[in-house]
Structures are given as C-alpha cells and as structure tokens.
Specification:
Strand order of the largest sheet: 2-3-4-1-5-7-6
Largest sheet: 7 strands, mixed
Structural class: alpha/beta
Helix content: 40-55%
Low-confidence stretches: 1-36
Shape: globular
Order of helices and strands: HHEHEEEHEEHEHHH
Mean pLDDT: 86
Distance between the termini: 80 Å
Length: 224
C-alpha cells in the first residue's frame, strides 16, 4: 500500500512538471514566422524599353541593376517583370523590376508578394522624388503617393499606403510645363558623375532594410 501511494505521488509530479513546460507547438509556430520574415520583396520602379534606361524616372530599375551587377546576380524574365534572387546574411531578397510600365506597377507587386508569401512590412519600393534634391535619400514606412503614378497604383492594388518606400531625389530643376520631359529625360553630366556613389549607398540601404530593420535603416541613412 505504501509503495502504491509513493508511485501515485511520483506520477502526479511528472504530469505537473510536463504541464509547466512551454508546449512544443509554439516553437514550431515561431520557426515558421521566422522563415516568412526572412524574405523581402525589393521593388524598383521604372519603365521598360531602351529609351527609358538612363532616365530619372527609372532610378528604381537602376538601383536594382547596380546591386545585381555588384553581387553577380542575373535577372530572369518572369510573370509581370524581371526578377533576381539575392541571398544575404540569412535573408532572401527578391529584386523585382515590373514590366507593366510605371502606372500599373501594383499588379506586379501584389502578384509576387502573394506568390512568395512576403508580409507587407517586408516590402521596399524604390522610386524617384521631385521634392528632394538630387541623390538625397528619404525612407518612410508609409505615406501618400505624392503624385507619383507608380505609387498611386501600388496604393490602389494593395489597398494600403502602409509599405516602406525608398525615395531617391531627382530634384525639380525644370521650367514650368516641362515636368514630364524632365522626369523622362536623361541624367545630366554632373548627375552621371555622382550616380555611382549614390547607387552604392542604395545597395547598402537595401541590405540594411533586411538585416538591421526599418527603424535602424531610417536613422542611419535618411537625409544622406
């Protein structure tokens, strides 16, 4: 009888200890969440076609092309764009250049966001900005389209403004009524000379966004 009572108390203690442990299912859930958060969609906005390659409006394409060349990546023609996959410090960056033309960019963003199961907070959109002096960087977690047709369509398709945008200043040095010609015009000689250093910084910002996080990236690079 005494031996039976000892066994009963020993069994109760084992059950109690087991109940106090963290359920294994939570660990699996966290692992899955971590896996998703390590994927990033970096979207460079621009227009397809040789005539647009060196235009101010195509700075998004140019930034991704610079990073791809630096890291020996190749873009593959895929649905709604050109895509390169970049592995860096345990993260996977999908570099996307939509082929939908600027004013339909949202369709490509939504398709690849859903296809690769990338959360909204892991999307970075690179775009030109007339309100910033040439080469000035401004990273924001959300905001209006500011009159930019690419951002306008992304906001419409995603039904939100809450995604990170990386604005690259192209300045507003144009005469009244010449905005379109300026935006779709090519960089002048002074800008061309300064672009490589600015594009190198852009590549670093992309890496920082995926590894250091948005807040640290904004603190380190905004206004530079």
């Amino acid at each position: 009888m005494i031996q039976w009572i000892k066994q009963l108390f020993a069994s109760s203690k084992t059950v109690s200890d087991t109940d106090s442990k963290k359920p294994e299912v939570h660990e699996h859930t966290n692992d899955n969440m971590k896996s998703v958060s390590n994927k990033f969609l970096i979207v460079g906005l621009g227009n397809i076609g040789a005539e647009y390659v060196n235009t101010r409006h195509n700075i998004g394409f140019k930034a991704l092309d610079f990073l791809a060349k630096k890291e020996n990546l190749s873009f593959e023609t895929v649905k709604l764009g050109a895509l390169a996959e970049y592995k860096f410090k345990g993260r996977t960056f999908f570099l996307l250049k939509p082929n939908t033309y600027m004013n339909l960019s949202g369709k490509a963003v939504k398709y690849w966001m859903d296809k690769e199961n990338i959360p909204l907070e892991n999307i970075l959109v690179i775009t030109d900005d007339l309100n910033l002096s040439f080469g000035t960087i401004r990273i924001k977690p959300k905001g209006s389209d500011g009159g930019h047709n690419g951002l306008k369509n992304i906001n419409l398709i995603l039904n939100t403004q809450n995604y990170t945008r990386f604005r690259f200043g192209i300045s507003d040095q144009f005469k009244k009524g010449q905005q379109v010609d300026y935006v779709l015009g090519e960089w002048d000689e002074e800008e061309k000379a300064k672009l490589p250093e600015r594009l190198e910084l852009a590549a670093t910002i992309i890496q920082s966004f995926g590894t250091a996080g948005l807040e640290n990236t904004m603190t380190s690079y905004n206004g530079k």
